[in-house]
Amino acid sequence: MQKRQRELSALTLPTSAEGVSESHRARSVGIGRAHAKAILLGEHAVVYGAPALALPIPQLTVTASVGWSSEASDSAGGLSYTMTGTPSRALVTQASDGLHRLTAEFMARMGVTNAPHLDVILDGAIPHGRGLGSSAAGSRAIALALADLFGHELAEHTAYELVQTAENMAHGRASGVDAMTVGASRPLLFQQGRTERLAIGCDSLFIVADSGVPGSTKEAVEMLREGFTRSAGTQERFVGRATELTEAARQALADGRPEELGSQLTYYHELLHEARLSTDGIDALVEAALKAGSLGAKITGGGLGGCMIAQARPEQAREVTRQLHEAGAVQTWVVPLKGLDNHAQ
């Protein structure tokens, strides 16, 4: 915590906005925020039009600060990008590429021309490469910070499209579920760019466990697609099974049948495992969660590393969490459904 505070204090954002008209300048620093997400069911199949159930994780947040630079720069796109913590050079480069595209799209949409150099600082608690939507959350936070800086109100569909601009660079072909859920306050059903709130009839909670090993959504998506091309009918079977499990889970969640919901989670893990998207470490965490009494458990996100998610009754949470750490989890987060209740109004 002290290290992060030192980093932020050393990165004081400049306040010069020389060259930007009053109509395009609202304040000296813009702030934007977003949060993490987890996929309950629907990973990968959602790219092919199947539904996905997504869960916001409000306790894992990211904050973006954007301000006018006091120094001229020749960098592409007219901005400098800093991530706090110790991100890898590859991660910063990838994020920076998406940010330049997002910023250019924002400027074009808002009619901003000849803007001076910008400094962007991204500070967050969402671990990277874990399937928790860190790239989408960072992009959304930056889009909102840009809007705040220039005094614009971003419509939700505009924010979504801006995030997708960066996500498509990061992942090759982003379904949009991350872009939508990192700004959502309640669990969602996502399908082909459309969302609806999930009805919740269960008083369960979800425990997300970090394996400590980064995954690669882009690599996983490409690997799965290549597998589909090698064997006729494989894609249809995968998407069909995924759709069946996701719909069964949605109905169980709405009807208040937690055991049935948990079963669908575990079945979906088996589907992803068969597609070689899981790892020995993730499988060990899934097994530990089930032995500890979880109603269901599965990998969450793109795969090839990252996180798993387990469903448990409130009274089981401590034991499940303990055994997950014993099985190798480096950190865990508990997301209670009760606080995200969204029965239809």
From TrEMBL:
GO molecular function: ATP binding; mevalonate kinase activity
Superkingdom classification of source: Bacteria
GO biological process per UniProt: isopentenyl diphosphate biosynthetic process, mevalonate pathway
UniProt keyword annotation of Zinc-finger present: no
Domain GHMP kinase C-terminal per the UniProt entry, residue ranges: 250-328
Cellular compartments annotated: Cytoplasm
Gene Ontology CC annotations of this record: cytosol
Signal peptide start-end: none
Protein name (record): mevalonate kinase
Gene source species: Streptomyces sp. (strain CL190)
